[in-house]
Design a protein that fits this description.
The chain has three domains: 72 residues, no CATH class; 98 residues, Glutaredoxin (3-Layer(aba) Sandwich); 228 residues, Rossmann fold (3-Layer(aba) Sandwich). Helix content is 39%, strand content 19%.
Length: 466
């Protein structure tokens, strides 16, 4: 009986002690005091009526013995809340807003710790004491003005003392292609810092708009599209092929051809107007399947055109079925247990057929691809450029298990390097670059046809005279 009494007494004493401690450490402000605090805060900070102001409990201040600490929370109702600390006098007649500075602490250290610049390309001095971090949007005209002010002006004057770094800040709500440009720039940055800055200088300097570009009046380039496929590597050019510009930009006349028959249309156009430059954009289904015979004979004849094969490793426009270029073992919509057939390389076929320029590249090798396309256009003969790029919606979803653009691009990048991000080897490696270059080494087909026509015409005229 006595033991039970002692246990009960101890429990109640402990509970009472806890309540006393809680009362000493935190006390709710009386309703009338809360109303006074809210009134003063609203008036001083001009807080509108729709913003809710709540007064938290009072706790003894550890820094100011004669004051209690109190928190006032402002809630706008859209999920955004902000807390403000105040000091309340013991007589409840005065409230203070104090800011405490630690003079031994770097005031910018906390802010800079939130800005991750790991792996970002730099310009100017390496590891300088002054670092300029610019949040950039490639489609923003004001960002272009900033870029123009920084480079070369400020870089020229302070480049030996300042490090310049760009961070992506695409405003997708008002700039439709800003994210696309940021992704392209990120791929370049992963390969080569100079390539990243070349891209930034070009986009900001030229006022480039992906999908829209002003074409000079002397444009003599014709584009021919075979089947349903997006344009990824076409150029706006004048009379000189070195004027070829960049991806996703098109200027000039263009024709739409039946799927698999783009080279047939191109042959007729080249014979009819031989002085124009022709760029034929086809897909892997076109070049490596239904249109392969036309591709082979155009290469055999050395027809003076440049073919860009957009290879997304499947029939992506019709649901993601496998194509001849789908890697062996990979799952697609029509190969749920993996692709059984061996892969087909159209570069080998056109080279064997007689193409005078053959190259292969990927969407993660933008800088290399632009150089290759320019070189292909300079060839007065048949040029073939094989470009592998991702289809997030189908190949990514079925084969890689993700529709994330960066992860799809990372997979392509890894297979150009032969090594994954974790250091292990990939299941196969694409060998990219120029595979065969015999540019201008043999007569172009339309020239041979014109020479023959001239000979036939001359022969017929001679026969008439006799």
């Amino acid at each position: 009986m006595l033991r039970r009494f002692l246990v009960t007494l101890i429990r109640r004493s402990f509970l009472l002690l806890v309540l006393i401690c809680l009362g000493c450490s935190a006390q709710s402000a009386p309703p009338d005091l809360s109303r006074k605090i809210e009134h003063q805060v609203r008036a001083f900070y001009s807080i509108p009526a729709e913003v809710n102001v709540s007064v938290g409990p009072m706790t003894p201040s550890t820094d100011w013995p004669d004051y209690d600490s109190i928190t006032v929370t402002m809630d706008s109702g859209d999920g955004k809340k902000q807390d403000y600390k105040f000091l309340l006098s013991k007589d409840r007649n005065t409230m203070l807003r104090m800011v405490k500075f630690d003079l031994n602490k770097d005031p910018y250290a906390e802010l800079m710790s939130k800005i991750d610049i790991t792996g970002r390309p730099t310009r100017g001095a390496k590891a300088a004491k002054v670092v300029v971090v610019n949040f950039d949007d490639f489609e923003c005209p004001f960002c272009s003005r900033m870029h123009e002010a920084l480079f070369p002006g400020i870089l020229k004057e302070y480049g030996d003392r300042v490090t310049f770094i760009y961070k992506d800040y695409p405003l997708a709500e008002i700039h439709p292609w800003a994210i696309h440009a940021a992704v392209d720039a990120g791929c370049l940055a992963a390969q080569n810092g100079d390539a990243y800055w070349d891209f930034a200088d070009y986009v900001h300097g030229k006022g480039l708009k992906l999908g829209i570009y002003e074409v000079p009046n002397n444009t003599t380039c014709v584009g021919i599209y075979g089947g349903i496929s997006p344009t990824i590597a076409v150029g706006s050019l004048g009379h000189e092929p070195t004027d070829a510009q960049t991806f996703a930009t098109w200027g000039g006349d263009n024709f739409g051809a039946t799927h698999g028959r783009a080279l047939a249309v191109a042959t007729g156009l080249k014979l009819a107007q031989p002085d124009k430059k022709y760029l034929i954009v086809v897909g892997d289904g076109d070049a490596a399947s239904i249109g392969t015979s036309h591709l082979i004979h155009a290469a055999r004849r050395n027809l003076g055109v440049t073919v860009i094969c957009e290879d997304n490793m499947g029939y992506e426009s019709t649901g993601g079925q496998f194509s001849p270029t789908t890697p062996a073992g990979y799952v697609t919509n029509s190969s749920p247990y993996g692709m059984v057939e061996p892969g087909f390389d159209p570069c080998d076929v056109v080279k064997a057929a007689g193409a005078t320029f053959v190259a292969e590249t990927t969407a993660t090798q933008w800088h290399q691809t632009v150089k290759i396309v320019k070189k292909a256009l300079a060839n007065d003969g048949f040029s073939f450029v094989h470009v592998r790029f991702p289809c997030n919606e189908n190949f990514g979803a079925y084969a890689l298990g993700t529709r994330d653009t960066l992860k799809n691009l990372e997979w392509i990048y890894e297979h150009t390097q032969g090594r994954k991000a974790d250091g292990t080897e990939t299941d196969f490696t694409w060998e990219t670059g120029i595979k065969h270059d015999a540019s201008n080494s043999r007569p172009e087909f339309s020239r041979l046809m014109r020479d023959m026509n001239a000979r036939v015409k001359a022969d017929m005229e001679a026969k008439k005279k006799t």
